[in-house]
């Protein structure tokens, strides 16, 4: 199972449509008027927020954002199957075949039901890449190597977004909260969204800190278990924490623009 930072099994039109913040179909409301100067950033924000959802009370809908129960199953089960078959048989090929077969079955099921294929296809592609790497080296532990690179890449990209003062979670949460990119004019909001982005970076960093030592120690079963626990479940927790960290403080006066 690959550690994808975001997965949404049903990126429907309501993701960028009207929500409790009063956004219209372009994601702009009264607070986002006059943002023509940031048109490119607004467009990037809409794209980044495409798979994020809110609940009726205006909170981030973590479960739906990660693809719902079905998305969780599709993301987790191939890894469980690979680890389970390998633990029982200690044979690489049957484990890889079983994992790929399960991921393919999820894709076929979505195709038959005519439901969105994005998450299932991404999951299948991830499993195939992991299987290819492990089959090439002949080492079961190398099934988890692609995840190390994706975690490092996503973490580096988010770190860069903070460095250039466009923290990624500000683009995402600012859009779905109806703030557009105007949060950049308030130092408090900049710091809040930077902290929210750090929370997601911490997810990627924690995965690497725990899993790399297991990889180099050839602890395949422990590595597989860590990958399952620290996949979508840990990401969902980080996403929820990032949302709480960055929530606006009612009645707070704005600081001078940065």
How many structural units, i.e. domains? 1
Q: Compute the gyration radius: what is it?
A: 20 Å
Oligomeric state of the chains present here: single chain
Which consecutive residue ranges, at least 5 long each, have pLDDT under 50?
4-37, 253-258
Termini separation:
42 Å
Major sheet, described briefly? none
Query: Strand share of the residues?
Result: under 5%
Q: What percent of residues adopt helix (DSSP H or I)?
A: 55-70%
Derived from helix and strand composition plus strand pairing, the structural class reads mainly alpha
- H/E series: HHHHHHHHHH
Total DSSP E strands: 0
Mean pLDDT: 80
Count of helical segments?
Answer: 10
- General form: globular
Transmembrane segments: 95-112, 117-134, 154-176, 196-216, 222-245
Region (Disordered): 1-41
Pfam family, one: DUF3159
Biased composition (Polar residues): 15-25
Feature tags:
258 residues; 10 helices; single chain
What does this structure look like?
The protein is mainly α. The protein has one domain. The protein is built from ten helices and no strands. Helix 3 (68-89) runs antiparallel to helix 4, helix 3 (68-89) packs parallel to helix 5 and helix 8 packs antiparallel against helix 10. The chain starts with 38 loop residues before the first helix and ends in a 13-residue tail after the last helix. Residues 4-37 and 253-258 have low confidence and may be disordered. The chain crosses the membrane at residues 95-112, 117-134, 154-176, 196-216, 222-245. InterPro entries: UCP010219 (IPR016566).
């Amino acid at each position: 199972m690959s550690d994808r930072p975001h997965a949404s099994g049903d990126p429907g039109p309501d993701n960028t449509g009207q929500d409790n913040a009063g956004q219209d179909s372009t994601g702009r409301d009264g607070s986002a008027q006059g943002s023509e100067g940031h048109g490119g950033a607004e467009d990037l924000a809409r794209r980044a927020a495409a798979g994020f959802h809110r609940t009726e009370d205006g909170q981030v809908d973590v479960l739906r954002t990660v693809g719902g129960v079905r998305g969780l199953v599709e993301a987790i089960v191939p890894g469980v199957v690979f680890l389970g078959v390998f633990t029982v048989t200690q044979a690489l090929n049957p484990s890889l075949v079983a994992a790929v077969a399960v991921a393919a079955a999820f894709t076929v099921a979505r195709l038959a039901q005519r439901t969105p294929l994005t998450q299932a296809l991404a999951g299948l592609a991830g499993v195939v890449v992991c299987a290819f790497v492990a089959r090439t080296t002949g080492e079961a532990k190398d099934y988890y190597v692609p995840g190390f690179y994706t975690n490092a890449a996503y973490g580096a990209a988010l770190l860069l977004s903070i460095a250039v003062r466009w923290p990624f979670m500000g683009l995402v949460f600012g859009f779905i909260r109806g703030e557009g990119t105007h949060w950049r004019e308030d130092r408090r909001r900049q710091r809040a969204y930077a902290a929210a982005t750090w929370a997601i970076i911490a997810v990627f960093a924690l995965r690497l800190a725990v899993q790399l030592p297991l990889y180099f120690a050839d602890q395949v079963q422990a590595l597989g278990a860590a990958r399952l626990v620290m996949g979508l479940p840990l990401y969902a927790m980080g996403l929820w924490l990032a949302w709480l960290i960055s929530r606006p403080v009612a009645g707070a006066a704005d600081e001078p623009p940065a």
